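Structure in, sequence out. Go:
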């Protein structure tokens, strides 16, 4: 998962779609007497959604955009009020929102249905330049600013939400089919993810729906997301088949080749000409220098700083402490007062000039050619004029590196229209201008310097996250239109340099965010442009941005989650059949409970489970209920000096045909912000008894498990008090796991613990057995996918009817993955006929432990 570079572990992931199970339904309390504000996209979806929200006890007010944005207005059902905007300025939006609150009630939810692009051809020809797309995006940004107080107050009385809905392709803009939605609306993803971090109590989610989904189905999917208990995801998509996905960063296969220079099998050469924004200084400049060393290209650097001769009084003066007195003296000589602001501004200008000169010299020394042009990259007319002479000398531009950016960090409620404009224009208008100066057919490389803030969101950077998410969506769209062009959008984490101050470094360290060393990051750019493997369009570089855990709410909460279980949705259960019918393993029930707890309490991880009981197992036959209900009740919240802990009581039940509850599983779950270090199991016994080598529990009726549950590889040793087994599992994708994805607790790997106990019972009692209860289970770390691990059993007591044991999963060195205390199974020869032999498919090779 990590690439080691100069002893620094920096993650490099390719952004991909990940399938998600259908959302569970959380029984919600909506804020009483609050309004749901819904924007009208001019389609029947607005009507269908408004009706659905009213049925969910929301009072709905529809907000209409000006007719220049949405030409048609929906004919709303009786009783639903609407407010019409005449323009999208903050001066108009703010009083309109206040009027809605005064006339209809405080706003407790906001759902934005993004209007579809009006002119498809215009979108294609001027993909970043439609002012209407930007105006809508900016208006949602400003609405969020002025709803901050209202939504956060409403969240104290029920589920308050901020939802944005786009109609890209239902795959968050990453699908292969051409999207009709303008990439500019992709900024809504960055905004929503940032608000999810800034607004701890408000449910924030960005939803992307395939534009061909009908209005009724679209409304149903949006309302289903509103009821989702999962707080760990912030963006989902639904394609035309209604398959649910989100975005994840998966390990990037791009090779790392440190120290390789010169020309390799690459299109890049001394004839390649790059147009580079922000390339005169900072991180982008360092990347250009590295590229010059590797490929000896030509570079046209664009920057705002005017390149002028250094003043005579500053020449030869290197140290700032010596330079400042000279600046002061020069200002005084001109008859002006040397204020600190004026001195610092002059100093900054001199240092900027020096950095540009150093960059130009370094590129030439590396074998490249370079020219620097001072220009406002958002002014396409001026930029084209200034580029003409340089292009005549260098040749046609074959590549773009867009590294320019502006920050205006502050929380959403403190943002201004000017903040949005300055951040947006540099990133988006700047890219638009650069593209206008290039012939698309001659463009071999498009390299965008985006940010991890776009992928994750980041506190204080809502506008920056929006702009960078637009770059990401644009990169995917451009690649679809120009498949021969090498397109990459680097979602950089913080670099060790540039705008990262020592104070920011300390903050990043507290959040376990590693800064990217300049040598490492610049080499990644070179490697990406050198590689011949199919490129990843969006590459995430750096550590995840983890939201700091907020203060615990003092009140104890209760939750009710509903889930419909089907065999079709969970293919792996075909390999857990008892007596001819698939049965839900207790480990799946426990994993479901643990995962929901983590979803509801974002940032907390499941460490232990106590009093795990199987009351009435769930069988996939005629007794299968229409839905299963998980009741969760917080029973304790404690904040000690060493840790914070939340304890919940959980019960899974269903309703019988007579209306009475039928209880299936119960457990108590404890969550902590961080899992404790894994202990070492020092008394394990890896001695191999050769007489046990040919044991085949899946064929001889000892175990009933099918291929996907067949993790038992070899019994190493067995005695009346102990058992040691080597295990390994084939990797299963999420489509196989269905409603039980691999999160904190892997229910299939955990099932191996109980399988081993069943083997011990069969060996000594010639009887079948099934789990009943466990006193306590503890989880420390995930079992490495596909690798051999060991299960050690310590038998505590045993009779003809039941056995109790402690079960430890660990590696060959005794490092513990998880452990179970007081695991109890029932023993009965009457169970023997239920255990049907199964065949092993694609077994994982077992490598015996070293003595």
């Amino acid at each position: 998962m990590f690439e080691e570079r100069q002893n620094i572990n920096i993650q490099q992931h390719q952004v991909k779609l990940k399938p998600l199970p259908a959302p569970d339904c959380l029984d919600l309390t909506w804020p009483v007497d609050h309004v749901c504000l819904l924007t009208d996209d001019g389609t029947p979806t607005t009507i269908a959604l408004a009706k659905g929200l009213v049925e969910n006890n929301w009072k709905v007010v529809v907000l209409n955009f000006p007719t220049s944005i949405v030409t048609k207005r929906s004919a709303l059902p009786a009783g639903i009020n609407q407010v019409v905007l005449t323009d999208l300025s903050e001066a108009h939006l703010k009083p309109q929102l206040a009027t809605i609150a005064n006339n209809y009630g405080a706003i407790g939810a906001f759902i934005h249905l993004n209007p579809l692009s009006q002119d498809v051809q215009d979108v294609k020809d001027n993909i970043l330049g439609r002012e209407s797309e930007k105006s809508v995006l900016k208006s949602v940004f400003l609405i969020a600013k002025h709803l901050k107080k209202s939504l956060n107050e409403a969240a104290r009385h029920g589920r308050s939400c901020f939802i944005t809905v786009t109609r890209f392709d239902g795959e968050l803009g990453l699908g292969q089919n051409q999207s009709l939605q303008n990439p500019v609306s992709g900024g809504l993803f960055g905004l929503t993810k940032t608000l999810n971090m800034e607004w701890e109590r408000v449910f924030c989610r960005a939803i992307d729906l395939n534009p061909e989904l009908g209005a009724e189905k679209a409304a149903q999917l949006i309302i289903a997301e509103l009821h989702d208990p999962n707080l760990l995801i912030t963006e989902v998509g639904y394609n035309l088949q209604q398959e649910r996905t989100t975005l994840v960063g998966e390990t990037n296969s791009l090779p790392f080749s440190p120290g390789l220079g010169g020309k390799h099998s690459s299109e890049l050469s001394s004839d390649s000409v790059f147009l580079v924004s922000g390339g005169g200084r900072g991180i982008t400049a360092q990347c250009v220098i590295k590229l010059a060393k590797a490929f000896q290209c030509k570079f046209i650097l664009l920057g705002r700083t005017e390149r002028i001769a250094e003043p005579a009084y500053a020449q030869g003066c290197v140290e700032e402490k010596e330079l400042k007195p000279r600046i002061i003296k020069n200002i005084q000589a001109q008859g002006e007062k040397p204020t600190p602001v004026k001195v610092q501004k002059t100093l900054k200008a001199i240092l900027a000039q020096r950095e540009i000169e150093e960059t130009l010299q370094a590129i030439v020394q590396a074998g490249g050619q370079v020219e620097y042009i001072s220009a406002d990259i958002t002014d396409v007319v001026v930029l084209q004029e200034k580029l003409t002479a340089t292009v005549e000398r260098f040749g046609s531009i074959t590549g773009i590196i867009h590294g320019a950016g502006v920050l205006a960090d502050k929380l959403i409620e403190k943002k201004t229209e000017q903040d949005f404009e300055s951040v947006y224009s540099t990133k988006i208008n700047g890219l638009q201008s650069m593209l206008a100066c290039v012939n698309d057919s001659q463009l071999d490389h498009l390299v965008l310097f985006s940010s991890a803030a776009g992928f994750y969101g980041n506190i204080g950077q809502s506008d920056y996250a929006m702009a960078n998410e637009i770059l990401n969506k644009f990169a995917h769209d451009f690649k679809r239109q120009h498949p021969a062009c090498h397109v990459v959008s680097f979602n950089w984490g913080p670099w060790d340099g540039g705008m990262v101050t020592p104070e920011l470094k300390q903050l990043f360290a507290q959040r376990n965010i590693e800064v990217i060393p300049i040598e490492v990051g610049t080499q990644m750019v070179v490697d990406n442009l050198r590689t011949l493997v199919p490129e990843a369009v969006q590459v995430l570089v750096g550590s995840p941005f983890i939201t700091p855990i907020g203060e615990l709410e003092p009140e104890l909460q209760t939750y009710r989650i509903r889930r419909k279980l089907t065999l079709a949705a969970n293919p792996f259960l075909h390999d857990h059949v008892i007596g001819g019918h698939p049965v839900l393993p207790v480990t799946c029930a426990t994993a479901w409970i643990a995962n929901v707890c983590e979803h509801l309490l974002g940032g907390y991880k499941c460490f232990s489970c106590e009093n795990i009981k199987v009351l009435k197992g769930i069988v996939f036959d005629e007794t299968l209920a229409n839905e299963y209900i998980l009741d969760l009740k917080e029973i304790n919240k404690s904040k000690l000096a060493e840790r914070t802990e939340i304890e919940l009581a959980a019960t899974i039940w269903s309703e019988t045909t007579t209306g009475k509850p039928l209880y299936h599983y119960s457990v108590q779950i404890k969550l902590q912000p961080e899992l404790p270090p894994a202990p070492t199991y020092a008394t394990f016994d890896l001695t191999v008894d050769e007489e046990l080598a040919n044991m085949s529990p899946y064929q001889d009726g000892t175990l009933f498990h099918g291929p996907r549950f067949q993790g038992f590889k070899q019994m190493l040793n067995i005695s009346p008090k102990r058992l040691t087994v080597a295990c390994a599992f084939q990797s299963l994708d999420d489509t196989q796991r269905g409603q039980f994805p691999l999160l904190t607790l892997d229910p299939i790997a955990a099932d191996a613990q109980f399988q081993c106990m069943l083997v011990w019972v069969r060996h000594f009692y010639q009887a079948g057995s099934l789990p009943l209860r466990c006193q306590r289970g503890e989880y420390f770390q995930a079992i490495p996918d596909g690798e051999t691990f060991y299960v050690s059993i310590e038998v505590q007591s045993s009779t003809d009817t039941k056995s109790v044991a402690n079960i430890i999963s660990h590696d060959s060195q005794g490092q513990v993955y998880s452990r179970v205390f007081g695991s109890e199974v029932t023993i009965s020869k009457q169970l023997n006929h239920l255990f049907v032999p199964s065949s092993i498919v694609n077994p994982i090779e077992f490598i015996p432990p070293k003595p």
